[in-house]
């Protein structure tokens, strides 16, 4: 059993080292607008789809240089380009049309329902990698506090080496807010909101897809087998 696991891990490592196409999702070629859950934001070699209520406001494409394009009261500062805002507990899904995807880094900020002053951290940005076996891998980062004027600022986040080098069937990005008990939750009464930009990703080249799929499927099967023993 251990030998089989080592072989599957070796395949996964080999697949991860195969040829891949890197990209940067910037939203610059899009017109500011609003989205309901399930709507497509952008499609290049990755699909960016809004997560959230299909009958309500779940996201917005915002021009940071134009105050009139801000659809919420307290848009973040420090980004004069287009960015995506997940609103009302909404999120963003990245997928690659049947291929795999990995997420390397992004810029992010909290989107407050109104200007907020104080030193408190209200929540975190969550990145969820979706595995073939239904299991998820999570990483998160605190938004940080607002400045003296109640503004939240964009910050850059390089995901861990382990997460950034893993192929997923999709990646979800969303916010969670702290409760009185210290838990970070979503849904959060439509207050879990965030902004993201400059999402650096990779997708495997066609010559590597079969090897990646074989290695991930093997790992999933071995995980299920181990859990049943």
UniProtKB/TrEMBL annotation:
Signal sequence bounds: 1-22
Superkingdom of origin organism: Bacteria
Classification via InterPro entries: Ice-binding_C
Keyword 4Fe-4S recorded: no
Pfam families: PEP-CTERM
Record protein name field: Putative secreted protein with PEP-CTERM sorting signal/MYXO-CTERM domain-containing protein
Domain annotation Ice-binding protein C-terminal: ranges: 202-225
This protein's UniProt keywords: Signal
